[in-house]
Design goal:
Number of strands: 0
Radius of gyration: 23 Å
CATH superfamily of the largest domain: Clc chloride channel
Strand content: under 5%
Mean pLDDT: 85
Helix content: over 70%
Low-confidence stretches: 461-465
Order of helices and strands: HHHHHHHHHHHHHHHHHH
Length: about 475
């Protein structure tokens, strides 16, 4: 142990001497401090950009593998899906229980716990172990046909990267707010995942923290910009979805947008409540074999729907959004929205890693496409209704209307229809709030905080035994 401490002290001295020799060349003391304060954010942003790009590529490969096997032996998913679901859950259960699910509730809980009295609990929510466990579990899950996204996991992964960098700073280093590091990491993760810098900033302000923007504006802006630029260097200029045709839209389209907003809000809340109900059922299963039986049933339900009804039950749903927005075949069968809502319920409640951002967007897109057909709208107007459906459904899940609007606008470069999209977010949010005061993420955050408190209370008891 003493030898390890000596090695760590030597490394710390070397880092200090290197940094000191570099910064001694700068005469302005304030500039030195500013550079030292900024360096951890810059480093975290670069690493976040790199990790998010490779994670995105692996995620796409896993989805492509699912499609490849399904086209040749669809029946095999009656075995593949349950096995992958159980394996993905087991990895989480054994190595990092708090890496399950989306990752956004864990980040909001970590921000809340970033105080001197409770900061020790944050390591259960954000760590290097979380990063690797989250990636492996979600990749296995999506390969098995899980209806999950990578965007929520990317946020927890990036927050863990920033948190880890903060933990490894030497004692002599200028004090950096742990809370600001986590917030900036999460925003940088969202920006890199969707290529939406404004969405990352708005997400940090609206969803993650109520802190006044002036307290961390420089760190947040630089983190988002650097992570986004790093991702762009690997992927090149791109939009998450593309450039849908949105010209020749008449004001009468609002006649379809208002009922769509109400329907998207009701649908999102319904899915959230059903999901919370099934999570409660899973949580009440104390024996491992009962949990495994539940997970196998979830896998069989999803694979059965994909085989017997439609392959589009599987996956994040990005293909559905792309096909409805960028082809002339915009017709969506009436039952597809139900499949896109049932899928996340059984995938998410299985207890593995996986986000709900992309599945929510795809569910909203299918609702919009079905409604557009009922109203016999033109192709550009159908595209608008699809975008509005995505915004409305995501808003009802997150209760973050500005974040949802900005994300959809940036993903499609559709700023000319900003008022329609924001109107949808406003109506959907009003519907959601009237039906349930708290969002899905708020419910999940409370569950994680409760679990952490229970673990804290059990520690003294276990020691006394």
């Amino acid at each position: 142990m003493q030898e390890l401490l000596n090695k760590e002290m030597n490394i710390s001295r070397k880092i200090k001497s290197i940094l000191k020799s570099k910064f001694d060349l700068i005469n302005n003391e304030k500039l030195k401090n500013n550079l030292l304060n900024a360096f951890p954010y810059w480093l975290g942003a670069i690493i976040t950009g790199i990790v998010s790009v490779f994670y995105a590529k692996l995620f796409l490969l896993a989805e492509a593998g699912t499609k490849f096997i399904f086209e040749r032996a669809s029946w095999s998913f009656l075995i593949i899906t349950p096995v992958c679901f159980v394996l993905a859950w087991k990895i989480i259960d054994r190595y990092a229980p708090f890496s399950r699910g989306s990752g956004i509730p864990q980040v909001t809980a970590a921000i809340e716990l970033s105080t001197p009295k409770t900061n020790h609990k944050v390591k259960s929510l954000l760590s290097l172990r979380i990063i690797f466990t989250k990636i492996f579990s979600s990749l296995i899950m999506v390969f098995g046909g899980g209806v999950i996204g990578r965007e929520g996991p990317t946020i927890q992964i990036s927050a863990s990267i920033f948190k880890t960098i903060g933990d490894y700073l030497p004692a002599w280093y200028p004090k950096i707010s742990r809370r600001n590091m986590i917030v900036t990491g999460a925003a940088a993760g969202l920006a890199a995942a969707f290529n939406t810098p404004l969405g990352g900033i708005v997400f940090a302000l609206e969803e993650l923290t109520k802190t006044h923007f002036s307290y961390f504006k420089s760190a947040l802006l630089t983190g988002v910009i650097i992570s986004g630029l790093t991702a762009l260097n690997f992927l090149g200029p791109y939009l998450y979805l593309g450039y849908p045709t949105l010209d020749l839209i008449t004001p009468w389209v609002i006649v379809a947008i208002i009922p769509l907003s109400i329907l998207a809000g009701i649908s999102g809340i319904t899915m959230s409540k059903v999901l919370l109900y099934f999570l409660k059922i899973k949580r009440n299963l104390k024996k491992n074999y009962l949990k495994i039986i539940y997970i196998v049933i979830c896998g069989l339900i999803i694979s059965g729907l994909a085989i017997l009804v439609d392959f589009r039950t599987f996956g994040s749903g990005k293909d559905i959004m792309v096909s409805t927005l960028f082809s002339d075949q915009k017709k969506i069968e009436w039952y597809i929205p139900f499949l896109r809502m049932v899928g996340p319920v059984f995938s998410f409640s299985a207890g593995a890693a996986g986000g709900i951002f992309a599945p929510s967007l795809s569910a909203g897109a299918t609702i919009g496409a079905v409604l557009a057909e009922w109203f016999h709208l033109s192709n550009p107007e159908t595209n608008l209704i699809i975008l509005c459906g995505m915004t409305g459904f995501l808003t009802s899940i997150t209760r973050s209307p500005f974040t949802s609007s900005i994300l959809v606008l940036e993903m499609t470069n559709s700023h000319n229809v900003i008022f329609y999209i924001m109107l949808t977010a406003l109506f959907s949010n009003l519907v959601a709030v009237s039906l349930s005061r708290r969002s899905l993420y708020e419910h999940l955050k409370e569950q994680y905080l409760s679990e952490l408190n229970s673990m804290e209370e059990e520690k003294p008891f276990s020691k006394s035994i």
